[in-house]
TrEMBL record:
Bilayer disposition of the protein: Multi-pass membrane protein
Primary localization class, coarse: membrane
Name of this chain's protein: Cytochrome bc1 complex Rieske iron-sulfur subunit
Keyword 4Fe-4S: no
Subcellular location as annotated: Cell membrane
This protein's record includes keyword Glycoprotein: no
Function of the protein: Iron-sulfur subunit of the cytochrome bc1 complex, an essential component of the respiratory electron transport chain required for ATP synthesis. The bc1 complex catalyzes the oxidation of menaquinol and the reduction of cytochrome c in the respiratory chain. The bc1 complex operates through a Q-cycle mechanism that couples electron transfer to generation of the proton gradient that drives ATP synthesis.
Length: 356
């Protein structure tokens, strides 16, 4: 239905408005579905088919989520994303195309003129509004077209299920999950060169490789075992994410080191968790001139020269520091795990409340 609004007026006022002649309505051309019951039924079945396709897409999303797990290779990740992406596309486009076809082929398309009023609605206006709603219900046929109505309701009802399903992928559940990572005494710091490295690709970092002003994305050496067939050959992306670290070297004279952390670094080399303490985004931007770490999600900024204390943004606590030292071969190794939980502060609060 096409609606033309104006501010009121009759007769000559409608014939001419602001100097423009009212062209009036063009000739109404009925659609084939308006005159042919068989075409109308065919259009109804086609629209219902789109709604059914939407439901199939939603079900496929859920099935594919479990049928194609993320896995440990880039190919598996791509297959997982493609499979659930096809399901999501079918679910959303099915509903959208079905509604568009319903409007174009079955809803009444007669043009009308509606007066626009500048005053608040009276009881009479409210009654008119209800009448319009009832008219729209009759014109759309939603009351009498049970096939379209029921398939649309079913498609819309199950469409949110994939969103509920993937909530689990937001990260570890509250509890003690973020209190322990793979770091521990003697674990070497290795360059993070990819999402899922092999044992051969791990490159332990020597203190001599870290120059002033440089920064490395670091993972623990024990993330990947030498035997690729071992049950724990790869600890998983969750463990990698929790243990992700940024390694930097600063002129020791610029560091304001707390006395209890004097031996947590090596000649200006310091390591901090990459997980922002706001909502867990990766802190991956290092400004070597100011020695600031920036979270790209909500612009929380941390000062490396002062144990990564928050100097801007919504984060409420500093990034946890990883104590490091040098082993006999000159490689950087962890002295222990983090002494506080990594990640969002609310995880820490929830856990402490539970423990209390």
């Amino acid at each position: 239905m096409t609606s033309i609004e104006h501010s009121g007026g009759t007769g000559a006022q409608l014939d001419e408005l602001n100097g423009f002649q009212n062209p009036g309505f063009g000739e109404h051309k009925p659609r084939i579905t308006d005159s042919d019951p068989a075409a109308e039924r065919t259009a109804e079945r086609q629209i219902a088919a789109w709604f059914i396709l939407s439901m199939i897409g939603t079900v496929w999303f859920i099935v594919a989520y479990f049928l194609f797990p993320v896995g440990e290779t880039l190919t598996q990740v791509r297959l997982h994303n493609t499979a659930i992406g096809l399901g999501a596309a079918a679910a959303l486009f099915g509903i959208g195309i079905g509604i568009v076809l319903w409007a174009k082929n079955l809803i009444t398309d007669v043009e009308v003129v509606e007066d626009r009023h500048d005053i608040a609605g009276s009881e009479e206006d409210q009654a008119i509004a209800l009448e319009i709603i009832d008219q729209a219900k009759n014109e759309s046929g939603i009351a009498r077209r049970s096939l379209l109505r029921n398939t649309l309701i079913a498609a819309v009802a199950i469409a949110p299920l994939p969103a509920i399903l993937v909530f689990r992928d937001l990260g570890p559940l509250p509890g003690d999950a973020l209190f322990k990572t793979l770091w521990g005494p003697g674990v070497r710091l290795c360059k993070d060169i990819g999402m899922i490295p092999s044992a051969e690709e791990l490159h332990p970092i020597k203190a001599s490789e870290v120059t002033i002003g440089s920064a490395f994305h670091v993972i623990p050496e024990n993330l990947v075992q030498e035997d690729p067939h071992a049950a724990d050959a790869f600890h998983g992306l969750d463990e990698k994410a929790k243990a992700a670290v940024l390694l930097m070297r600063i002129d020791p004279r610029e560091l304001n080191t707390d006395p209890e952390r004097e031996d947590w670094g090596v000649d200006g080399i310091v390591a901090y968790s990459k997980i922002c303490t706001h909502v867990g985004c990766p802190v991956a931007l290092y400004e070597h001139q100011t020695h600031h770490l920036l979270c790209p999600c909500h612009q929380s900024t941390f000062d490396v020269t002062n144990h990564c204390k928050v100097i801007f943004g919504p984060a409420k606590r500093p990034l946890p520091q990883l104590p490091i030292e040098v082993d006999d071969e000159g490689y950087l190794v962890a002295k222990s795990d983090f002494t506080e939980p990594v990640g969002p502060t609310f995880w820490e609060i929830n856990t402490r409340e539970t423990s209390a």
